[in-house]
Amino acid sequence: MNPELSQDLSLLHLVWNASLPVQFVMLLLLGASLMSWWVIFIKLFTLKRARQLTDQFEHEFWGGSDLNALYQRISSGRESVCEMGRIFEAGFREFLKLRGQSGQSINVILDGTRRAMRATYQRELDSLESHLSFLATVGSVSPYVGLFGTVWGIMIAFVGLSSVAQATLAQVAPGIAEALIATAMGLFAAIPAVVGYNRYTHDIDRLANRMESFMEEFSNILQRQATK
Amino acid sequence: MKPVREAAQVRRDNPKWAAGALAFGVHAVFVLLLVFGVSWQTEHPAPVMVDLWQSVPRAESPPDAVKPPVRTAPAPAPKPAPAPKPQADEPPPPKAPDIALEKEKQRAETARLKKLKAIQAAEEQARKEAARAEADALKQVRDKQAAEQKKQALLRQMEADELKQSMANESAANAARAARQAEAQAAGARQAALAQTVGRYRDLIRATVRGNTRLPDNLKGNPQVRCLVKLLPTGDVVSVRVTQSSGNPAYDAAVVRAIEKSSPLPLPAEREARAAFVPELSFSHRPQE
Question: Which chain B residues touch A15 with a CB distance below 8 Å?
């Protein structure tokens, strides 16, 4: 009887019949969701690997192996190196260079070494934290974008309602349903992004702490070696 | 530095494809879940017909549909739901006002309304009568049921009375037996409690006396002194008499003095327990326990 009643209310149908702005919002959110999941997985793998390599490096470093041999192995670039290994490499290279120049005092040598290590540390931290801001953005913005799509869709649905004389729920229901899909998508994009952002920030903080304490301890070792 | 950087870059490239595939996988799973997991409304719902009698749209019936009263006037049949009226699907824009047509329409409308009212009244009447008849029948049935129930209840009452009587007899016998048993038990318990109290106070008195005893230097072995102590109910020692000497007069005297010094002796508060100590207490003492 009523053409609205016999409508197909499946998901794809709802998305397909949505108004253009709502479809645009949905597309945007789908893209954001895909990207954020991509970043989440990339970071998951990268951070896991960084943790493993750091554990391995710390084990080697404190295992009493020769620092020169370790430096040779790392700077040859044949094996994958963790961030801490690169800090060690930069610091030890600077130390060797400064020590080679005669007439440098211990303080100057150690200051130079520390500066080199600090620079590498900043660079590594930066590369670890790359793309995390994207997760934060998706987490905070996509609910609003979804809400915008919903509001727009409901607006359209009510405008359509005003042009018919006999208002029934069946005339607005599909419109509202398709509009609400936008909110659902926004939340679907936002929740994993926020969770991932928090988790990875915490993980990176812990890694950074480990690197910083390593820098201090390594400076001590170098100082002992220089005074010998 | 450069080779290291490049190596790092190569390593970072690796997870990208895997991550992308996983991201797509997550979305595919989610969409599949939504499409197949949620029961979306896809079949056409059965058409529902609704007739609103009170709010028949007046102004909306198009001017050229003057005939509806003739068409829709339902015969005053026992069928409660008359044939559905044709719905005004698309009200065309009202034409130029035609007074004659309007008037005729109004007349037809009022006639139709009158007829409707008559039909409604008749239906109301029929419904009321039917309800009354039904209520009567129901009442009869209920009366019969009530009588049946009363009879049953009486029978049950009688049975219950008999049962109660026999049970009362039995329970009286039981109660008597239980009371006797309880009495015996209580007596036993009281006896035990009394014995315990007496033992406790005997130990207490012995400890007090022992604390006050100064053993003489020339004491040898572990001889026993037995005394008979006369006591007042308050525990005050009236007199002490040695009934069995230890063989060492100094030790005998020391014990007597210790008992006198311990006056008043600690006595239990209960009269029955005190009977073991008052008025005479046989008391034995050894230097070492």
Answer: none
